[in-house]
């Protein structure tokens, strides 16, 4: 049985933990708002880029001269996985779920006899994956999210790296793994193929329905595609970063909310235990005094 | 009320503008082109330069873009720009600093990739200065 002093200090320590978690929750909530706004503001660009590319891709089709980013290298021996995680922990299953999805995919690819290469964005992912796939990590980026949120330039930095590797023939297929933001309490680990480009279904449906007009291209379809496809890589990575950061803050907010609530429950339980044992001690002392008085 | 076309200017981080305009002149890679309502559908890449928005037969707004792509159809003109700043907000000294930085980068560039990047930055800086001087 814990002594009264022990109980008191435990209650005090749980109380200070609760203070920290509730402060973290509030910080996450305000960051989430900003991240969510940024993610929503970036969506129109990515969407329009997607439909435009889809249209172009169907126009160019699988011509001989189609850019490599669209047609692929014709092989799929080497896969590059770009993994987006947070730099910090304490955000529930956020990092774990993305790492798990990556690990499953990497194992499946390895079992098929394919080579896997990894780019880790965010420290936690690199830390979790380096034991198993340490030799496969070709690049890692940390500190993506600055004071003012995520900058497009950091996304282009990662995008340039991916494109440079592709140009050197270092990989054939590139897939990005990130947490898609659904709501503050729900994030979905998503895998999206980046290279070769996969057209959006919307554009294809439009095409099938024959509603899309015939476009003039200036300069040529191929030239525009060659210009747009590399840009699209950066845009998709930027989008993934924003989604991932919104998800991170959402996950941290709900994790910290749970932690705060648990701490509250624990304080209640400990207080009851503390009061009971204090009362027991008082009763004990009284009994001793009374029985002592009676014995006289 | 004259006919208008919807101009949408989108950068990677935000939808900057979505409003009806009478005419807009876009700096296409193969030369400037004006977009009036009911323009035939086309897609064009954009070089670094200035987008002129016309209202009442006069230029009402000038926006600098650092390249991108434009999609035009009879109802709207969508411009995906990497970087877009109103010309009024451009600073001559910043543009000059950018030009010097890009020139230095170009000299230091060793790989074809770096070189291409630096050349692009140089083009952007030159276009900014050109936008400021007229």
UniProtKB/TrEMBL annotation, chain A:
One of its GO terms (molecular function) is ATP binding. GO terms for biological process: proton motive force-driven plasma membrane ATP synthesis. It is a peripheral membrane protein. CDD domains: F1-ATPase_gamma. Keywords: ATP synthesis, Cell membrane, CF(1), Hydrogen ion transport, Ion transport, Membrane, Transport. It comes from the Bacteria. Its main location: membrane. The keyword Membrane applies. One of its GO terms (cellular component) is proton-transporting ATP synthase complex. InterPro entries: ATP_synth_F1_ATPase_gsu, ATP_synth_F1_gsu, ATP_synth_F1_gsu_CS. It is found in: Cell membrane; Membrane. The keyword Disulfide bond does not apply. Belongs to the ATPase gamma chain family. F-type ATPases have 2 components, CF(1) - the catalytic core - and CF(0) - the membrane proton channel. CF(1) has five subunits: alpha(3), beta(3), gamma(1), delta(1), epsilon(1). CF(0) has three main subunits: a, b and c. HAMAP family: ATP_synth_gamma_bact. Produces ATP from ADP in the presence of a proton gradient across the membrane. The gamma chain is believed to be important in regulating ATPase activity and the flow of protons through the CF(0) complex. This is ATP synthase gamma chain. It comes from Thalassospira profundimaris. The lineage of its organism: Bacteria, Pseudomonadati, Pseudomonadota, Alphaproteobacteria, Rhodospirillales.
TrEMBL record, chain B:
It comes from the Bacteria. It is found in: Cell membrane; Endomembrane system. It is a peripheral membrane protein. SUPFAM superfamilies: Epsilon subunit of F1F0-ATP synthase N-terminal domain. Its main location: membrane. Residues 92-119 form a coiled coil. One of its GO terms (molecular function) is ATP binding. Residues 7-84 form the ATP synthase F1 complex delta/epsilon subunit N-terminal domain. InterPro entries: ATP_synth_F1_dsu/esu, ATP_synth_F1_dsu/esu_N, ATPsynth_dsu/esu_N. GO terms for cellular component: endomembrane system; plasma membrane; proton-transporting ATP synthase complex. The keyword rRNA-binding does not apply. Pfam families: ATP-synt_DE_N. Gene3D superfamilies: F0F1 ATP synthase delta/epsilon subunit, N-terminal. Keywords: ATP synthesis, Cell membrane, CF(1), Coiled coil, Hydrogen ion transport, Ion transport, Membrane, Transport. The keyword Calcium does not apply. Produces ATP from ADP in the presence of a proton gradient across the membrane. HAMAP family: ATP_synth_epsil_bac. NCBIfam families: ATP_synt_epsi. PANTHER family: ATP SYNTHASE DELTA/EPSILON CHAIN, ATP SYNTHASE EPSILON CHAIN, CHLOROPLASTIC. Belongs to the ATPase epsilon chain family. F-type ATPases have 2 components, CF(1) - the catalytic core - and CF(0) - the membrane proton channel. CF(1) has five subunits: alpha(3), beta(3), gamma(1), delta(1), epsilon(1). CF(0) has three main subunits: a, b and c. This is ATP synthase epsilon chain. The gene is atpC.
